[in-house]
Amino acid sequence: MSRSQDPHPSRSFFPFGNPFRMKAPKGSHMSPQLLAVLQAFEVTLAERLRKLMPKSKDEILSLSWMTLAMKSLCETHNDVRTLITDLELPVSVWDEKWVDVYFDISTKLLDICNAFSSELSRLNQGNLPLKCALHNLNPASSKQFHRACTLLDDWRRHISAKNPRIEKCSTILDGLVGTLDLPKVKNSAKGKVLMQAMYGVKVETVFVCSVFSAAFSGSSKKLLDLDVADMYSWTPAFKSLQSLVNEEIRVRFSSGKFSVFSELEAVDAVVKELRPTIQGGVDTEDKVEKELLLKTVEELGMAAEKLSLGMDLLAKGVDGFFQAVLASRDTLLSSLRFDKTVNDRVLGRNIDQQLVH
């Protein structure tokens, strides 16, 4: 799959059709109990996707929305871990290649989490020149105004800089798209349930991560347009969400905004208003000018505080997703060790019986 290059692309997520349809185990009957488990998972996924639908376009790529998206991913990945436990699917049934692919996918997700965390840390470092600028704007003197101008320029340069680790995320996401066509679990109804659930998890994960990658990199070319088949109950909710979010992000980039992040854009808007004022000098003896300056500085302080708080909450959300992926890996590893121990004991028992006979 190639990335979208035009403003309104329509690229298929699956160039050769739905891989799940091709890979679904044949001859495996899904009992009413298993069907109920799968339906419950998909109903929950659909509800989560609907909760991510912004009430207005202004909410798109606000830090609060992004934090909600990360929370949604955590919950979905945790649900899959619970599903694996509930299915009691023996690890011995899992094809070795399937396990290898799973660990490769989780490694890529951990790499993406680390890249997002590094970018949030870098953006947070921009708080220092911003706070110093606000400190210099409190006492009114031309010397401190000049210093404040320099600090505001430093903030803008820092925020505009590119993070090489974020630039690599698009390559990692391409790799994730390539792993959607998972090897099938051998002729197993439980395996079919797991495969279909994993497909939904992958779609939500790739979508959210591609949105984050585009936002952090400052390029709409990082967005992925996923074409999901209508056979899943959560498909309508996903298509509506993807269409609204991707379209709005492309509009913002095409309009030349400083940042697609609402909170960053809010800070920059105040900086643009404040900088010419203090650069030209403020008559501190003029009551009107002084009150106007104080009001603008107060607005900048509030916007900066909101940005800082939003970044901190989002960083915690990314860390939560990182921990959820790690927990899933640990669950599978524990199952593998347990399965190997059981097999070794059975093998040892058989050998003992042969020796007796």
Describe, in plain words, how this protein is organized in 3D.
The chain has 357 residues and is mostly helical. It has one domain (19-356). It contains twelve helices and no strands. The protein has helices at 19-23, 32-51, 63-87, 96-125, 127-137, 142-160, 164-167, 169-178, 189-217, 235-254, 262-279, 287-356. The longest helix is centred in the C-terminal third of the chain and has 70 residues, at 287-356. It starts with 18 loop residues before the first helix and ends with a helix.
Label the overall shape. elongated
Low-confidence stretches: 1-27, 341-357
How far from one another are the termini?
A: 60 Å
Class based on secondary structure composition and strand pairing: mainly alpha
Query: What is the helix tally?
Result: 12
Average pLDDT score: 80
Computed CA radius of gyration, to the nearest angstrom:
26 Å
Quote the beta fraction: under 5%
Major sheet size, sense and barrel closure: none
Helix content: over 70%
Question: Which helices and strands appear, and what pairs or packs with what?
Answer:
Elements lengths: L18 H5 L8 H20 L11 H25 L8 H30 L1 H11 L4 H19 L3 H4 L1 H10 L10 H29 L17 H20 L7 H18 L7 H70 L1
